[in-house]
Amino acid sequence: MPEIKVTPLGAGQDVGRSCILVSIGGKNIMLDCGMHMGYNDDRRFPDFSYITQNGRLTDFLDCLIISHFHLDHCGALPYMSEMVGYDGPIYMTHPTKAICPILLEDFRKITVDKKGETNFFTSQMIKDCMKKVIPLNLHQTVQVDDELEIKAYYAGHVLGAAMVHIKVGSESVVYTGDYNMTPDRHLGAAWIDKCRPDILISESTYATTIRDSKRCRERDFLKKVHESIERGGKVLIPVFALGRAQELCILLETFWERMNLKAPIYFSTGLTEKANHYYKLFITWTNQKIRKTFVQRNMFEFKHIKAFDRSYADNPGPMVVFATPGMLHAGQSLQIFKKWAGNEKNMVIMPGYCVQGTIGHKILNGQRKLEMEGRATLDVKLQVEYMSFSAHADAKGIMQLIRMAEPRNMLLVHGEAVKMEFLKGKIEQEFSIDCYMPANGETTTVTTNPSVPVDISLNLLKREMALGGPLPDPKKPRTMHGTLIMKENVSFMLVSSEQALKELGLNEHQLRFTCHVQLQDPHSDADTLHRIYTHLKSVLKGYTIQHLPDGTVIVESIVIKVSSSAEDSNTKVLLLSWSYQVKTWTLFLEGLPMQSKPGSSPNHLVIESLF
Amino acid sequence: GGLTFTFDCSAQNHVTSKLSFTVFYVKLYTEIHKPFSFRYKDLHVYQLEHPTQVLEWTSGNSVCVAGYSQSKNEILELRLPLKLLADENKSLCAERDFKVSHGGFTDGPVRCLTHIPGTRCAVTNDGLSSDLQVWDLGGEESDVIRRTGSIKGKRSASERGSRIAARPSSAPQVLHGAQISDVQLTELASGETLYKLETDSADPLSSLQFVSDTVFLAGCCNGSVYVADTRTSAPPQLSHSPSSAESVIWWTDAAAGPHPSSRRVIRVSSSGQAVVSDLRNLGGAGCQAQLDVQTPGRCSQVKVSWAPTLDDCISVSGFSGVVQIYNTRLWGAEPQEARPLFEHRGHAVSSQQTDDSVPTFVTSHIWHPERPRTLLSAASDGSVHVWDWVDPNRQGGSPTP
């Protein structure tokens, strides 16, 4: 049976790392290659031993597709491609390709420099790995090879995030990565056409949540900033160059304008260059049929937001500063943090997840005393606020996406099966499709029903139509005889048997079965035959029965002959002969049925008789 | 209306484009006050797939909601966001979302849902008959809410359906009925009827609740209130309606305080009249007010509730898309117009309703049993809000942290 196999790689029920193996139409595809941020040992990498126990992965994978730049989706990429070994194509969107290496390098620095780890990928490995990347444009079909094609769709969530449609022949799979169904200020909502994939694979980490509105999150953010400013404090917001930073700036600018606030807002210069660079990429990418709203603007034409100079950090009075990097692990944001940490009127707002080992991670875990370089300790007296602005699809979002794509089957990864029964039931009920939920390391096999297109010869079609009867109806299939020929390994053709024999240069053979039936009848051979004929004519109405002058009775295509037994002239022998196409028949003789079994040989004729 | 911002967008070699967007959210929090203040300590806004008419606590941090469309509906048990409940490390908690901890499917609408205290069991009524459905809300091993049985009521067809009240302690028992003469106490495990209210009146009920382990209060739509004890078969105490007006409907709530002296009853009518009386002396002099409700007369799902921990505070919803909180201490013996202490306008302001001909109205609201100013409210557009309001009288010139 044709089938698609899906295996989320990993161990146990842990979530937090995406790496899914799909086998479809003889092709093996890896979807995402994430790092688990919670572990410090090899458990943070996906378990590639499922694919092969040792050696490179190149021979086993046709391609690797990365959905977006978050580390739990691409963090293990350099490890997989350079340390385990993979030289095949790696696909991702343009912005992902630009931003991925920066995050990987940042992550590498934190892990090696801050935490002192040794068995980790190097900067050169990141560079080598990115050389294997083939960038994708949205809605553009890319032929990975003769049979495998992929297409990227807009996913929202973060800059460059994509959902991927994978097709081999008439079987297909859609992988969502992380996506979002409600538009942002700078990102649109995910969108896909009614591609009807055999399987839609989606993360289920947030599937059982109902999200608090964006307005409330923003309200909370503004409230916190306002409270600090009102009491004369300084607010530090560490950000990555592009994405959330722009959203928060727009939000503050609007608020400042409405409330007529005077405190200065700064955006650090390091951000300016990076942001403009990515902004160009952003524009190129988003020009391709993005749905709904996103904000196109020159980054720094704000009325209330000015470029930061590091001397401003010492200025008295309230202010708000956006600075990189986002996890407070180095650079300007860390410098500013060190200056402001000692004053309880100040505040730091962390707008996203921080990797273990960073200052950001430590203060979000409640640490109030930090060890800095040179054994100096820093007392953290300022207020620490953790706010999540990341956009994930919730239960409603998953249902919306299923409505859009109309998959034949649903597959949810990264959820605990016992906690997902309701959602599974909901999906199965509303859409009448199967919903699978494999655990990590477990393979789900989905049987597909691919339709194979076949051409039919015109002669055959005409012949069938000439037979008359009702028009072809998919609900009432009719038997027809023909021969299926496969040409040049690609196209199928249905032709009449004669044409097939001609093309193949074969002779036609006919098969007929015969059997003998004994009867006691004192009449002559011809009379017996005539009696049989009359009897059959009366019993078998609606069938063509002929009595031919050559001494045979023909019922449709069954031939009956009568001869006398050599020993006794009262014992008649009926010779019955029929072609292989006659599957079952029942012969009524002397009012009693004689029945053949389908495909039976004469020896198996069952005769009920009492002569 | 909202504010409109127009941005001129240009960047280096790229095409100039204009984008304008309206900012609605500014209304939500800067509505009233000068100088600027935040009226809420916390505010969470959610959108359910389908609106709910029921909000019922199943624990200190979880509520049940359920749909009321004609055919199939969902019952959901939602866990409150961690951020709301984390009092100590609130700032380090980013978790703002509801978690759907359990869910199930019903065959009809859910008009009334009551949780049986001390169990994982809930009882519902579909508003079409007085039969009840019994549910298992599920535990650790499964997230599915399953129907485990039913209880036959007296009426196979009923205009409003039954009210349900769970006995506060002892073995699972429910008090239920669509009209006053039907009220009975049924033991869940056996289905046995343990008690029946002896009265001939056929007044339909608008509320039913226990005020102690055995004493209950039944409020009729016409405003009369019955108080009875399930231990005796003595006839109930009857307090007649405050008004004899025919077309007026009344809703009732009793404060279940620890002291008998704090046990008061409030009755609110569809014309906005509110009457407070002492439980031991329902007909006696209490206090009254004319509530400041937008559309008196046009209401079907009015909910009135005493605040569990704030003395004298009551909340009212169902007249419009607003939930109002009043301080009854300011009310006198003669009915006078009362101004609400606080109004939650979120459902009306940010309505998600697609059909403009029917304005959004609040279908239900509840107070958190312990957190003094935390409420949940649900509206006909599917929105559910969780809000912690700031008492404007306690607030100074600057916002409270």
Automatic annotation (TrEMBL), chain A:
Location in the cell: Cytoplasm; Nucleus
Metallo-beta-lactamase domain span: 16-229
Keywords from the named record: Cytoplasm, Hydrolase, Metal-binding, Nucleus, Zinc
InterPro entries: Beta_Casp, INTS11-like_MBL-fold, IntS11_C, MBL, Metallo-B-lactamas, RibonucZ/Hydroxyglut_hydro, RMMBL
Known cofactor(s): Zn(2+)
GO MF entries: hydrolase activity; metal ion binding; RNA endonuclease activity
CDD domains: INTS11-like_MBL-fold
GO cellular component terms, semicolon-separated: cytoplasm; nucleus
Major localization class: cytoplasm
One GO BP: snRNA processing
Gene3D superfamilies, sorted: 3.40.50.10890, Ribonuclease Z/Hydroxyacylglutathione hydrolase-like
Stretches assigned to the Beta-Casp domain: 245-363
Assigned protein family: Belongs to the metallo-beta-lactamase superfamily. RNA-metabolizing metallo-beta-lactamase-like family. INTS11 subfamily.
Name of the protein in its database record: Integrator complex subunit 11
Organism: Astatotilapia calliptera
Annotated gene: INTS11
TrEMBL record, chain B:
Domain of life from the UniProt record: Eukaryota
A single GO cellular-component term on record: cytosol
Annotated Gene3D superfamilies: YVTN repeat-like/Quinoprotein amine dehydrogenase (2.130.10.10)
InterPro entries documented for this protein: WD40/YVTN_repeat-like_dom_sf, WD40_repeat_dom_sf, WD40_rpt, Wdr73
Gene Ontology biological process terms in this record: cytoplasmic microtubule organization
Listed name of the protein: WD repeat domain 73
